Amino acid sequence: MRKKTFKHGVHPPDFKSLSSDFAIEMPDLPKVATLFLSQHLGKPAIPIVAVGDKVKTGQLIAKQDGFISANIHSSVTGEVIAIDSFIDPTGKKSKAIQIKAASEDDWVELVDDENYLELPTEEILKRVQDGGVVGMGGAGFPCYVKLMSKNIDTVILNGVECEPFITSDYRIMLERGEEIISGLKIFMKVLGAKQGIIGIEDNKPKAIKAMQSLLVGQSDIYVQPLELKYPQGGEKQLIFACVGKEVPNKGGLPTDVGVVVQNVGTAIAAYQAVRYKKPLIERVITVTGSAVRSPKNFCARLGVSFDYLLEEAKGAIAPVAKIISGGPMMGFAVGDASACITKTSSAVVFLRKSEIFQSQESKCIRCARCVDVCPQNLLPGKIGDASMNGLWDEAANGGALDCIRCGSCAYVCPAHIKLVQWIDLARLELAKRPKLEEKK
Amino acid sequence: MKLVVSAAPHLHDKLSTKSIMWNVAFALLPALCFSVYYFGLKALLLTVCGIASAMLSEALIQKFRKVPVTIDDGSAFVAGMLVAYNIPVSAPWWIPVVGSAFAMAVGKHAFGGLGSNILNPALLARAFLMASWPTIMTNWSKTTLGSISGMMGVSRDLVSAKAKVLVSSATPLGVVKFLRDQNFVDGLGVTAQQGKEVALLLMNKLSSFEVLQNLFWGNCGGVLGETSVIALLLGAGWLAYKHIIEWRIPTCYILTVFVLTYIFGGIDGIFSVSILFAAFQVFAGGLILGAFFMATDMVTSPETRKGRIVFGIGCGILTVLIRLKGGYPEGVCYSILLMNLTVPLINRWTMPKFFGSTGKGGAK
Does the structure show a pLDDT above 70 at B166? Predict the structure, then answer.
């Protein structure tokens, strides 16, 4: 099939070969799990356990608060030892429930509904919601909310994984393709979608092949090979690449063009929640970087710490100078290795000193390289300039509100201007506006 | 474990402002080599004077402005080089010195330094030098090789010796200007009809492969850096390979000049010249240097994609207007300077449509 792609974008080096050939492994059970109340978009969950309570693996420990929120379950068997602030994968302090794990792994009761596709839609939605399933690609949007969309004709599974270093989605496509397709079928059934597309970039030919071989004879589901380019995994970019539709700007959603996008990992989580009532308590995460002795793809329990993952990957081979939670384009540099992973943690990258890019901002030379790469067709340099000078209207004219924070502009900027953060500043200022007007 | 915390993205493309500037300087080297080959070592001396003056001026001005001295970023080096490239080899050493100092002081730092200037500093310096020392700036007498009359094979029985004096030791575009000028025909002392025939014949000679070949290698009169098409194209190729220049401006600029001269270039109504004459107009003068190295100056060209097309076409129209209808034989310098002034407007009028605002794909 002809490869497709979106407009503009960049080609960062991908570093995927560090970990791409290592099959998913189960690390040892952790001694402690720290489960954040906010692992998703929307309101944090509300704890329903207290310090000293004994919990089982998969037991609900915090329940969702409001429509856009998600349940949190214990990822280990043990005793709640703290409900306090801990360092989350973005490097900030965030409220979490800490559980000291016992030696055994005692699960809550699971079921096995072989005819899970026959279940009524409400029951499927309820199981996805109860399981605390959220988008595992990064945003963490509650899955069941997306599944309640109307007028959907296409479900796109995101197997692009365009961020350098990360190979977790690649591995699950190779090893757990059947579960992905089962999840996709659930999505299509609930949404009444006529077609399902799995978008995979052409730097993962084995994954394309593996998925295609599972789809022989399927007319309504196909694999769409995509030309390698960052940020193809961006929801809007992926939709354009696969079906040629532009999601409207100014707050438009994929549902406006009849599409729902889910990550391939989310499909597995949803499948397990629907068939087995298994809550989302573990995920595949890539532990990689040149400072790691033995890069791995782990199926790790949620709430384990970065240093635990590093130890499980046989430790550091060189002094670790930087830890990136997520990919290097949009991920967070975290200053503390005791930070713990969440439902949206796709990778932890441990870098050596020699690999760290550091430089000073200098003056914009108007080279317009940012304009040439912006997948949203904005004027990042103009927004940055306006933001530095506090001209928020100018920033809005340059498209500040349509930025997807992919970092392509900052990646190519020869003056090393922190464009993403300047644009963030403009967006924050512009977001304050209606409130100011209301006060008047 | 001591960890570095910084904002995303954590990866970066290799190109920096500094490397861009030094790449441009590198891309300008072939032209310097050809210049030294054809014009002698004085070409090198003038270039060194221009560069030294530019870097020294910038350092002094930055000290005076109490801002960090940034002469190692290569932008002053490139500007000095380009100032020298716009000077004839016969000029005295202080011409590039004064020109570069002017470029830095008035062209660049009066507006706030790198990234803030409105006009291309090197071209502004050329305009300044042209206005201040017009005879020095248009003295082609030291042009050693390939005087245009020789290339054209003008012989005594064809035109009078007077015509030969007029066309010899000038730039190729200077010759065209002579030929288009009524005074030239009158000066031959022949009838108007005969004069026109001579002019037409000479125009045809200009469009010969032999002349084009000489222009291609750089064997003709002109300022230091503009004569050798091949050398400039080598440099431009390097910059394109490095993704430092983008195709829109040079392509639109050169195509516009080519098409417009093909239509209006003749002295006998529209479409009265051969396609080779249009090629001659592209190779001759400063078009190649201007289109690839000056119009593409990042600071003074539009940021939007459409804007770059408008800018290139605008430069082309103005260049052809000046060449064919204006008082100067060459119009690259002034056309780019004029278009520089329109950049803010072009940027405003060619704002891109944000992704999602086009309604493409039938949003419901």
Answer: no
Collect all residues of chain A within an 8 Å Cβ-Cβ radius of residue B19. Answer: 414
* Partner residue facing B10 (CB), from A244, A246, A324: A324
Distance CA B19, CA A370 (A): 17
Q: How far apart are CA B183 and CA B178, in angstroms?
A: 8
Question: Do the Cβ atoms of A63 and A45 come closer than 8 Å?
Answer: yes
In B, residues 293-352, which contact A (CB 8 Å cutoff)?
298-305, 308, 351-352
Residue type, A57: T
pLDDT of residue B220: 78
With residue A188 as reference, give the H or E element that holds it.
Answer: helix A177-191
Question: How far is residue A20's CA from residue A12's CA, in Å, rounded to a whole number?
Answer: 17
B16 contacts A336? CB cut-off 8 A: no
Q: Tens digit of pLDDT for each residue in B236-261?
A: 999 999 999 999 999 999 999 999 99
Give the pTM. Answer: 0.90
Two structure tokens written together for B104: 């830095």
The answer for residues whose C-beta is within 8 angstroms of residue A407's C-beta and 6 or more apart is: A329, A330, A420, B8, B9
Inform me whether the C-beta atom of residue B269 falls under 8 Å from chain A C-beta atoms: no
SS3 content of chain B, % helix, strand, coil (to 5): 65, 0, 35
Q: How far apart are CA B65 and CA B59, in angstroms?
A: 10
DSSP state letters, A327-396? -TTT-EEES-TT-B--TT--EEEEE-GGG-------------HHHHH-TT---HHHHHHHHHTT-HHHHH
Number of continuous H segments (helices) and E segments (strands) in chain B: 19, 0
Is the pLDDT at A48 greater than 70? The verdict is yes
Q: Is the dihedral of CA A58, A60, A62, A63 positive or negative?
A: positive
- DSSP letters of A139-184? T--BHHHHTT-SS--EEEEE----STT--HHHHHHHH-HHHHHHHH
Q: What is the mean pLDDT of residues B206-231?
A: 84
Counting runs of H as helices and runs of E as strands, what totals does chain A give? 13, 17
User: Cβ distance A328 to B8 under 8 Å?
Assistant: yes
The sign of the torsion formed by the CA atoms of B303, B305, B307, B308 equals positive
Task: State the pLDDT at residue A1.
Answer: 73
| CB proximity under 8 Å: B 160-219 to A | none
Q: Which of A302-316, B186-200, B252-266, B319-333 has the lowest mean pLDDT?
A: B186-200
Q: Average model confidence (pLDDT) for chain B?
A: 86
Of A333, A336, A369, the CB nearest to B4: A333
Kindly state the average pLDDT of the residues B137-145: 63
Distance CA A116, CA A50 (A): 34
Q: How many whole angstroms separate alpha carbon B341 and alpha carbon B322?
A: 17
Q: Model confidence over B16-32: pLDDT tens digits? A: 999 999 999 999 999 99
Neighbours of A360 (CB within 10 A): 6
Of A256, A328, A399, the CB nearest to B9: A328
pLDDT at A114 over 60: yes
Cβ atoms of A364 and A384 closer than 8 Å: yes
- What is the pLDDT, as a whole number, of residue A124? 94
Kindly provide the ipTM of the predicted complex, given to two decimals.
0.88
The verdict on a CB contact (< 8 Å) between B13 and A246 is no
Query: What does the buried/exposed string (b/e) look like for A371-392 if buried means 16 or more CB atoms within 10 Å of the residue's CB?
Result: bbbbbbbbbbbbbbbbbeeebb
How far is A113 from chain B, CA to nearest CA, in Å? 37
CA distances from B106 to B117, B120, B331 (A): 9, 11, 22
Question: Quick one: A105 exposed, middle or buried, by C-beta within 10 A (0-12, 13-18, 19+)?
Answer: middle
Of B13, B353, B361, the CB nearest to A257: B361
- By C-alpha distance, the chain B residue nearest A365 is B115
Residue range B306-326, pLDDT digits in tens: 999 999 999 999 999 999 888
